């Protein structure tokens, strides 16, 4: 099944880039002028391939497998066609200049709730490199060859994961806490998927009722699965400082400070966060004065993750102190009930918070 869509004005590589956040992800492939993704849909496994000429006026979208029709119906959202940038016109640098350079960046909407939920649960509270390795093992062992997409695999469907003993996931490096939440999410995925085509405000209470979906995971799903342009990912060690450095030149910030800085940009706050990532500007790290010691030299070595202080890793927390410190932030982040770009930096959350 094939669909032709307009591409002019959309930077497809930038728009689709967040889907490739885990190195070596066997479900997705992005190359110049070509994007492929294997996934599971309510109608079965499916593979989607989008091909375009850089600067061209059209993109050719082809889908395969039982989920082909479902994927083609939602392809415009995935490619950023549903993202409305009207009204976003930052007037001062550096945000103004970043938007001029990245005007084609759009916030895509995957609509693949189970795929995204499994992807984020695996990433909770660990380094991104470790999450990538665990995701590869999980998909390699329990997934299936993607229809129409050589060398890609679909993630294991919720029916497969729901039957597992959580202890079996230890073989892939997933400790029991995340394993329990992954299996639990699989068991309720069938009653959550229909929410994706509805209003985010309606979906949030149902999402947050699932054990293991806390503020970080819920906000990541809001930006990734629903493509919400105003959601801000909270509970992440790196994003607040990244935003504060871009907007105010401040090296360190918490969720509350980040939300204060982003307030003038409603309803485009997540768009500003994406621009902060695209800027590639990290707050400078403070180093001790005096002769460099071995540890000081090691401190200056580049880290694998993008955060100002720690490599990437994510999760949801239930600590009362953390909830108190971020309560105001959580209340302002998502419409409706308080609570991921998608996999961002390092979360302060444990995956057992549900409220």
What does this 3D model show about the protein?
The protein has 355 residues and is of the alpha+beta class. 39% of the residues lie in helices and 10% in strands. It is built from 15 helices and 7 strands. The protein is globular, with a radius of gyration of 20 Å.
Q: Which series of helices and strands comes N to C?
A: EHEEEEHHHHEEHHHHHHHHHH
According to CATH, what is the topology of the largest domain?
A: Endonuclease III, domain 1
CATH superfamily of the largest domain: Hypothetical protein, domain 2
Give a count of the beta strands, DSSP E runs of length 2 or more.
Answer: 7
What number of structural domains do the residues give?
A: 2
> What are the low-pLDDT stretches, counting only 5+ consecutive residues below 50?
288-315, 317-345, 350-355
Strands of the widest sheet, in order across it, are 1-5-4-3-2
Q: What is the class of the largest domain in the CATH system? A: Mainly Alpha
Shape: globular
Characteristics:
single chain; 355 residues; alpha+beta; TATA-Binding Protein; Endonuclease III, domain 1; 2 domains; 5-stranded antiparallel sheet; two-stranded antiparallel ribbon; 39% helix; disordered C terminus
Spell out the blueprint of helices and strands.
Blueprint: E1 2-6, H1 12-16, E2 28-31, E3 34-41, E4 44-52, E5 58-64, H2 68-78, H3 95-101, H4 113-123, H5 128-142, E6 144-145, E7 153-154, H6 158-162, H7 176-192, H8 200-208, H9 215-224, H10 239-248, H11 255-262, H12 269-279, H13 294-300, H14 320-325, H15 327-333
Antiparallel strand pairs: 1-5, 2-3, 3-4, 4-5, 6-7
């Amino acid at each position: 099944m094939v669909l032709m869509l307009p591409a002019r004005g959309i930077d497809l590589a930038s728009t689709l880039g967040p889907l490739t956040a885990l190195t070596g992800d066997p479900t997705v492939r992005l190359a110049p002028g070509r994007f492929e993704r294997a996934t599971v849909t309510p109608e079965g496994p499916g593979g989607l391939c989008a091909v375009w000429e850089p600067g061209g006026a059209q993109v050719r979208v082809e889908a395969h497998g039982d989920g082909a029709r479902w994927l083609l119906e939602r392809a415009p959202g995935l490619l950023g066609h549903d993202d409305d940038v009207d009204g976003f016109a930052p007037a001062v640098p550096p945000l103004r200049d970043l938007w001029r350079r990245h005007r084609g960046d759009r916030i895509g909407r995957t609509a693949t709730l189970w795929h995204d939920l499994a992807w984020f649960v695996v990433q909770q509270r660990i380094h991104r490199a470790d999450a990538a390795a665990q995701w590869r093992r999980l998909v390699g062992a329990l997934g299936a060859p993607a229809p129409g997409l050589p060398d890609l695999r679909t993630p294991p469907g919720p029916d497969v994961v729901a039957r597992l003993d959580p202890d079996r996931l230890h073989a892939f490096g997933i400790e029991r806490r995340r394993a329990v939440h992954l299996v639990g999410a699989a068991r309720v995925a069938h009653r959550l998927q229909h929410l994706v085509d509805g209003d985010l405000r309606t979906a949030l209470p149902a999402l947050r009722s699932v054990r293991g979906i806390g503020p970080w995971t819920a906000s990541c799903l809001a930006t990734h699965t629903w493509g919400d342009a105003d959601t801000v990912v909270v509970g992440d060690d790196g994003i607040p400082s990244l935003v504060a450095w871009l907007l105010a030149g401040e090296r360190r910030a918490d969720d509350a400070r980040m939300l204060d800085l982003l307030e003038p940009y409603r309803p485009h706050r997540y768009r500003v966060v994406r621009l902060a990532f695209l800027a590639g500007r990290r707050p400078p790290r403070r180093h001790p004065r005096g002769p460099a010691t071995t540890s000081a030299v090691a401190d200056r070595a580049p880290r694998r993750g993008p955060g100002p202080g720690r490599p990437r890793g994510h999760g949801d927390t239930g600590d009362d102190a953390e909830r108190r410190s971020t309560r105001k932030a959580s209340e302002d982040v998502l419409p409706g009930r308080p609570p991921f770009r998608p996999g961002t930096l390092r979360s302060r959350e444990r995956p057992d918070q549900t409220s």
